[in-house]
Amino acid sequence: MTLIHLFLTLGGLTVAGFFIGRSKAFSVCAAQGGPSALHSRPFYYGTLTSIWCAVPALIVFLFWHFFQSTIIMEMVIVDLPDPIRFLPDARLNLIVNDIKNIVAGNIVSVQVNPAIQGAATHYRSLEMTAQAALGVIITTISMAAIVGVCLKITPNFRARNHVEKVVEVLLIACAVLAVFTTIGIVLSVLYESIRFFKIVPIHKFLFGLEWSPQMAVHAEQIGSSGTFGVVPIIFGTMLIAGIAMCVAVPLGLMAAIYLSEYANGKFRRIAKPLLGIMGSIPTVVYGFFAALIVAPAIKDAGDILGISVSSASALAAGVVTGIMLIPFVVSLSDDVINAVPQSLRDGALSLGSTRSETIINVVLPAALPGIVGGVLLAVSRAIGETMIVVMAAGLSAHLTANPFEAVTTVTVQIVSLLVGEQEFDSAKTLAAFALGFVLFVVTLILNVVALTVVRKYRAHYE
């Protein structure tokens, strides 16, 4: 039985288990006044039957999938001739690789040892037997589970409680998986960062004013200074993010206020989907827009005004990044403003406040925690933007506050350091992990600040 046939069979049994369990629930309550006599709705009895049909079978399949190859190979090795079976481990591993290559259809050499060819044939035979046995076992387990659950179905059987317990365990497992995934990411980045700081002192990295990660191959090589001062990159990141926020926050907040407080229903029904479409545009498209339209327009305007503007500038990247973030800010702010109780508006209006005074003095202060949280999330997105910066701001690291010059960001440097074949024992490659750790710390601080602001102001309005 192939893998596709196995999953189709299991899926069919799971669906059948749902209808069988549901029908069984109807049948046991038919003589007692109908479904109202059941502890749970018939849907839960069918769902519980499906769960018991699928989950044990999937557990067996996962166990079988992870250990099948090892067990079969051990059985094949035991049947090898003694001169091959008692070879040193290094040579025996080569034989095992040859067997696996033959089974996979790869050519290992011109002349194949008959014993190895026979072992590969034996492996295929055992694998087919194992697949057939797995199909029989999973089918048997699923059918036995259906029968077992159906025998337990009575009017007093608490099917809903069992289903909710399974869902609770599933949610806990997902939460634990998310937490451990985050911990694993942090630890892996931290480990590589520590390796980098063993090569480059941390004070030179954090306070250095030059960034040139091109390590020299020989002492006379020019243009490979190998300096790893992160200050220009951090400053460029904050410059572009600041410009983006100067564009996104005013426009996004004013658009959200209009949609929430002034726009009629017809306009909202048109504007909200359009903003959603605008927010779903890939960032590379915004990068093309920045490189082909915004950056040349800024340069031409600078030439007219007598200002020197680079063809790749922080201003172009920041403006387009801000435009990209407008739907994000509008969506979050609109939801927060709409969540403000209508009673606050009615109270302010009844005391003689105008509509604008109500918005400024009542609605916005009440919605401030959510707005601040949304703005800080937008800042995190601006800091993590890559494609727009690559296409509109360049790759050179300059320590400058002039928005008309080219700068670079942390994410862009991470990409450039890890492009191509790299050795993960050099300072140049490990610098990417150090930059990633710095970016993680910065975004963590922003999130902590957002939570602090939300908690501080929420106490006044709830």
Order of helices and strands: HHHHHHHEEHHHHHHHHH
Shape, please?
flat
What summary fits the major beta sheet?
Answer: 2 strands, antiparallel
Work out the helicity level. over 70%
Radius of gyration: 32 Å
In whole angstroms, the N-to-C terminal distance is 60 Å
Classification by helices and strands? mainly alpha
| Low-confidence sequence ranges | 216-224
In what order do the strands lie side by side in the largest sheet?
1-2
Beta strand count: 2
Number of domains: 2
Strand fraction? under 5%
* CATH 2nd-level architecture of the largest domain: Orthogonal Bundle
> What is the typical, i.e. mean, pLDDT?
83
Question: What is the H level of CATH, i.e. the homologous superfamily of the largest domain?
Answer: MetI-like
Report on the structure:
The chain is mainly α. The protein folds into two domains: 3-157, no CATH class; 206-461, MetI-like fold, CATH 1.10.3720. The protein has helices spanning 3-29, 42-78, 82-85, 89-104, 114-152, 159-199, 202-207, 231-262, 265-279, 283-305, 314-338, 342-350, 355-383, 387-392, 410-418, 427-461, and strands spanning 211-212, 227-228. It has a two-stranded antiparallel sheet with strand order 1-2. Helix 1 packs antiparallel against helix 2 and helix 8 packs parallel to helix 11. The protein is flat and about 85 Å long. 31% of the residues are buried. Residues 216-224 have low confidence and may be disordered.
